[in-house]
């Protein structure tokens, strides 16, 4: 039995040592924001008058949004099986591939940002440690994220930067470039945080540069020079977390 324990510990140490610096920091950030509470919880919140229900684990996910418009009660569901839309509980089978893609991206985007940094260990994610930096008098690890084409979705060529606190491993800022809907670049600064069910949910100030073709790597310099414009506020409301049975 003693040798079995030593063997297991050795394998664990080898596994930890084989991780890159970026992977280790992201692991610590995920733990600081909620860790195992993410895959063991069903999360609901309202964002811009739309109700979202989110579940995500390492192997499966289901994102739901519900709202009312001129057609009636709309329910969009995005999961491992694909995307479906119902209106007044009737499935819509006439959606074009273009519309399905647009709706899927919209639902996925809200879920992705609401769950950060959980999701940064998805198989398609490529993490690079840029180094340490200082922003607003605080020290941060700067992590760059890109995506593999295989499994990276339609937005695989997007790029992200994450500022993760050197002391507390909280993600206080992020910046990203995107290519859909005409493309652009954004930087987000945490405005406040709410903890529910052991998970840290963050609201953001959404900032943009004058030139939408600005490289994402330039966003910190522009932020420090006051060259970014406040575009919107990203606020999650009425957050509820329900623990799932294990």
Structural commentary:
The chain is α+β, with helices and mostly antiparallel strands. The protein has a single domain, classed as outer membrane lipoprotein receptor (LolB), chain A, CATH 2.50.20. The protein contains 4 helices and 14 strands. It has helices at 2-17, 21-33, 97-115, 219-224; strands at 41-47, 50-56, 61-69, 72-79, 82-87, 90-91, 125-135, 138-147, 159-165, 171-178, 184-196, 199-208, 229-234, 237-243. The strands form 2 sheets. It has a 7-stranded antiparallel sheet with strand order 6-5-4-3-2-1-14, covered by helices on one side. Strand 2 and strand 3 (61-69) form a beta hairpin. The longest helix is centred in the middle third of the chain and has 19 residues, at 97-115. It starts with a helix and ends with a strand. It comes from Algoriphagus ornithinivorans. This is Deoxyribose-phosphate aldolase. InterPro entries: DUF6503.
Write the SSE topology.
Blueprint: H1 2-17, H2 21-33, E1 41-47, E2 50-56, E3 61-69, E4 72-79, E5 82-87, E6 90-91, H3 97-115, E7 125-135, E8 138-147, E9 159-165, E10 171-178, E11 184-196, E12 199-208, H4 219-224, E13 229-234, E14 237-243
Antiparallel strand pairs: 1-2, 1-14, 2-3, 3-4, 4-5, 5-6, 7-8, 8-9, 9-10, 10-11, 11-12, 12-13
Protein name: Deoxyribose-phosphate aldolase
Pfam families: DUF6503
Quickly list its features.
246 residues; 4 helices; outer membrane lipoprotein receptor (LolB), chain A; alpha+beta; 22% helix
Quick recap:
This protein is of the alpha+beta class and 246 residues long.
> Can you count the helices?
4
Annotated CATH topology: outer membrane lipoprotein receptor (LolB), chain A
Q: Which strand-content bin applies to the residues?
A: over 45%
Give the H and E element order. HHEEEEEEHEEEEEEHEE
**Percent helix range:** 10-25%
Rg for CA atoms: 19 Å
- The overall pLDDT, averaged over residues, is 90
- What is the CATH architecture annotation? Clam
Number of strands: 14
Uncertain residue ranges: 1-15
Domain module count? 1
Shape: globular
Strand order of the largest sheet: 6-5-4-3-2-1-14
Computed structural class: alpha+beta
For the sheet with most strands, the description reads: 7 strands, antiparallel
CATH class category: Mainly Beta
Distance between the termini: 28 Å
Protein name: Deoxyribose-phosphate aldolase
Pfam family, one: DUF6503
InterPro entries: DUF6503 (IPR045444)
């Amino acid at each position: 039995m003693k040798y079995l324990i030593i063997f297991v510990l050795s394998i664990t140490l080898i596994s930890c040592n084989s991780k890159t610096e970026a992977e280790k920091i992201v692991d610590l950030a995920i733990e600081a924001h909620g860790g195992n509470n993410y895959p063991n919880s069903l999360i609901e919140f309202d964002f811009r008058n739309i109700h979202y229900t989110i579940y995500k684990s390492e192997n499966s996910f289901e994102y739901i949004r519900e709202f009312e418009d001129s057609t009636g009660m709309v329910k969009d569901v995005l999961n491992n099986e694909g995307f479906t839309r119902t209106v007044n509980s009737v499935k819509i089978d006439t959606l074009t591939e273009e519309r399905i893609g647009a709706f899927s991206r919209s639902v996925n985007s809200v879920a992705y940002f609401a769950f950060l940094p959980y999701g940064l260990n998805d198989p398609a994610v490529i993490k690079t440690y840029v180094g340490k930096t200082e922003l607003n008098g605080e020290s941060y690890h700067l992590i760059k994220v890109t995506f593999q084409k295989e499994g990276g979705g339609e937005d695989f060529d997007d790029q992200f930067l994450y500022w993760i606190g050197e002391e507390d491993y909280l993600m206080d800022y992020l910046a990203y470039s995107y290519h859909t809907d005409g493309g652009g670049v954004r930087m987000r600064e945490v405005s406040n945080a709410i903890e529910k069910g052991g998970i840290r949910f963050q609201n953001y100030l959404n900032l943009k540069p004058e030139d939408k073709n600005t490289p994402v790597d330039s966003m910190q310099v522009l932020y420090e020079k006051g060259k970014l414009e406040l575009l919107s506020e990203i606020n999650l409301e009425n957050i509820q977390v329900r623990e799932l049975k294990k």
